[in-house]
Specification:
The chain is mainly α and about 220 residues long. It has one domain: Cytochrome Bc1 Complex, Chain D, domain 2 (Orthogonal Bundle), CATH 1.10.760.10. It contains 11 helices and 4 strands, in the order αααββαβαααααβαα. The strands form 2 sheets. Strands 1-2 form a two-stranded antiparallel ribbon. Strands 3-4 form a two-stranded antiparallel sheet. Strand 1 and strand 2 form a beta hairpin. Helix 4 crosses helix 5. The radius of gyration is 17 Å and the shape is globular. The N and C termini lie far apart (about 50 Å). The N terminus is likely disordered.
Length: about 220
């Protein structure tokens, strides 16, 4: 297990360095981002809003998420590494500066000054903790699942469980033009588990205290 974790960590560091290099060259502007989110708020600005593709699930909470992760995710949709027709269309319409600005806006959105996530997540069921240990989830996402080892990885504590389940299954999906996520690390992790086990993981992580939220826009309140 230790050798596996060391190998994963080495690949992670190399991947993060590569993925983050271009993002670090562009500084996002919160005020500019606020003017560029019209296409986002129709889904991410409505509490409880559900997507119907690839199955019915709540769209992810992105307010309070790391800006570097949002940049990484949008670029992955733009390149087709994440396959989702709607998100690819949205991301494809954005310039690198647009992406940085939108990411900066959502990273600041709904953040409460002085609020802190638990240093370590509370334990779940014995089965959930067995799966978390098997997947070495905390080695990337942190002991609280809100403090990842690099900000280009997502905060996942308290994210919608049904979304987490769909996302995890996407890392297992291959040879599908519309569904799937190309990520060697997450693909290797997700493929260790049955879908029932992924749902157990998603339910546990989704039950944890979260820095993430959906911030309703005035027109949707």
């Amino acid at each position: 297990m230790n050798k596996l974790l060391l190998t994963i960590s080495a690949v992670i560091v190399a991947s993060v360095t590569t993925l983050s290099a271009s993002a670090q060259e562009i500084t996002g502007d919160v005020k500019a981002g606020e003017k560029k989110i019209d296409a986002c708020i129709g889904c991410h600005g409505i509490v409880g809003y559900q997507s119907s593709f690839p199955e019915v699930h709540k769209v992810p909470k992105i307010s309070g998420q790391s800006a570097k992760y949002i940049v990484s995710a949008l670029n992955a949709y733009k390149k087709g590494d994440r396959k989702h027709p709607t998100m690819r269309g949205m991301a494809g319409s954005l310039s690198d500066q647009d992406i940085a600005d939108v990411a900066a806006y959502y990273a600041a959105s709904g953040v409460v000054e002085g609020a802190a996530a638990p240093a370590k997540a509370a334990d779940g069921s014995a089965k959930a903790m067995e799966l978390v240990a098997k997947g070495a989830c905390a080695s990337c996402h942190g002991d609280s699942f809100s403090k990842p080892i690099d900000p280009s990885y997502p905060k996942i504590a308290g994210q919608h469980s049904d979304y987490l389940f769909v996302a995890l299954k996407a890392y297992k999906t291959e040879n599908n033009a519309l569904i799937g996520r190309g990520n060697a690390i997450m693909g290797g992790v997700a493929k260790q588990f049955s879908n029932a086990e992924l749902k157990e993981l998603a339910n546990y992580v989704g039950s944890l205290p979260s820095e993430l939220k959906t911030v309703p826009q005035n027109r949707f309140k």
